Amino acid sequence: MRRRRPAARQRAVKRARPTRTMLAAMAALAQEARERAHAPYSRFKVGAALKTRTGEIVTGCNIENASYGLSMCAERVAVFKAVSEGLEDFDVITVVADSKRITPPCGPCRQILWEYCGDILVHMTDLKGRSRTMRLAELLPLPFDGGHL
Questions:
Q1: For 94, which of 17, 48, 123, 142 could close a Cys bridge (C-beta 3.0–4.6 Å)?
Q2: What pLDDT, on the 0 to 100 scale, is given for residue 126?
Q3: Structure confidence at residue 117 (pLDDT)
């Protein structure tokens, strides 16, 4: 008999939103991570900071490869780094990029975030301090998860 993986958290549970101070601190950490990005091809550097409900924060930056498909976005780096360290139960991710518009996570990052984090808050900001915060379910309204398998 084949074992089924548990489905990702599918519903938003009412929780206190992170404070502006916490989001600003996470944005600063994501901006620091952004500086470590390896983006020689696109020159589009992105940083991310992922927080657990217990307050641990893990950062990530995008890492490009000449074979573009092997490149990794900042959000996925942060998630995989956190999961590989045994962390779980995330409540917010902050993404920082330098662009004309606020930059949301790409489609594959949204899928990974849903699988490992559920309907978390996604705080997007740029280097000028403009920001927007949304639930992941707003960015990925019909997610595919283990419940479909």
A1: 123
A2: 97
A3: 97
- Answer yes or no: are the C-beta atoms of 87 and 116 closer than 8 Å: no
One of 75, 85, 88, 115 is an active-site residue; which one? 75
Within 10 Å of residue 84's Cβ, how many Cβ atoms? 9
Q: Would you say residue 2 lies in a domain?
A: no
The tokens for 50 are: 């992922």
Dist CA 13 CA 61 (whole Å): 29
Assess if residue 47 is contained within a domain.
yes
Angstrom distance (rounded) from CA 11 to CA 25 = 27
Q: Is residue 3 part of a domain?
A: no
pTM value is 0.88
Domain that holds residue 117: 20-138
Instruction: Report the pLDDT value the prediction gives residue 2, as an integer from 0 to 100.
Output: 40
35 in active site: no
**Which H/E stretch holds residue 26?**
helix 20-35
Domain count of the fold of the chain? 1
Nearest to 116 by CA among 38, 46, 58: 58
* Mean pLDDT by groups of 10 residues along the chain of 149 residues: 43 68 97 98 98 97 96 98 98 96 97 97 96 97 92
